[in-house]
Design a protein that fits this description.
single chain; alpha+beta; three-stranded antiparallel β-sheet; 6 helices; 26% helix
């Protein structure tokens, strides 16, 4: 009898473990509670896309500790299935992404859509949609359309040499790309290939040596005209 109870306990324990390890990849219309938490934060009525044109993704990914985690992103509806395919590919390759939460979780008193980006990046949060202006210009960022993606931003910072701007500033040490460390994106790796093979541009390929040049190692984007009619 004890043996039977032990086997039953073992079966339940193993089943529970298996259940938590099953990766989930799902796209859906933005749930009402998420709409509520986004409104006035990452999305506002003046945003260049409407909520009906966005999708809420549930994405399994492997953390820096190697464990399976569930993350979320909001992306343009026309890219939803393609983005799920990208992250399924990265998951199968064992590619590690530290965390993946909606940027709305970082808003608070006195924090707007531009300052929240630095906070999210410093926390090494991989994210997509946020209606905000570009870091260096008064025009909508590609993130405002749900067609741009920042992956492991701490290890893959934005850099503008002309004014020595690093974002996040805490990622300055990772401007040295000669030593590959956990979370860094490099040309030809699984993350690069998954995005670029599907028509995305990598910010790491930008020319930072031209006048007013910059580089953005965390960033992948599509052209607005390729997605939005």
């Amino acid at each position: 009898m004890r043996k039977q109870y032990f086997l039953l306990f073992l079966f339940v324990a193993v089943s529970a473990t298996i259940k938590t390890e099953v990766p989930s990849f799902k796209a859906e219309e933005i749930p009402a509670n998420i709409v509520q938490s986004m409104t006035g934060k990452s999305w506002k009525p003046e945003s260049p896309v409407q909520l009906k044109d966005l999708r809420y993704l549930t994405i399994a990914h492997r953390g820096f500790d190697g464990k399976v985690k569930q993350g979320n992103m909001v992306v343009h509806a026309k890219l939803a299935q393609e983005i799920l395919a990208i992250f399924q590919e990265l998951f199968a390759a064992g590619y590690q992404i530290e965390k993946m939460k909606l940027i709305d979780e970082y808003f608070g008193d006195g924090i707007n859509e531009n300052s929240v980006d630095e906070i999210s990046m410093t926390d090494n949060n991989s994210s997509a949609f946020c209606a905000r202006y570009k870091t260096t210009a008064k025009e909508w960022s590609k993130h405002s359309y749900g067609i741009a993606f920042d992956i492991n931003p701490l290890q893959n910072p934005f850099y503008k040499p002309s004014n020595d701007l690093v974002a996040p500033e805490k990622g300055r040490e990772f401007l040295d790309r000669t030593t590959i460390r956990q979370g860094m994106i490099r040309k030809g790796d699984a993350c690069y290939n998954a995005f670029v093979s599907r028509g995305y541009t990598w910010g790491g390929d930008w020319d930072m040596h031209k006048e007013d040049g910059r580089v953005d190692y965390q960033h992948f984007q599509k052209r607005i005209s390729d997605v939005i009619d």
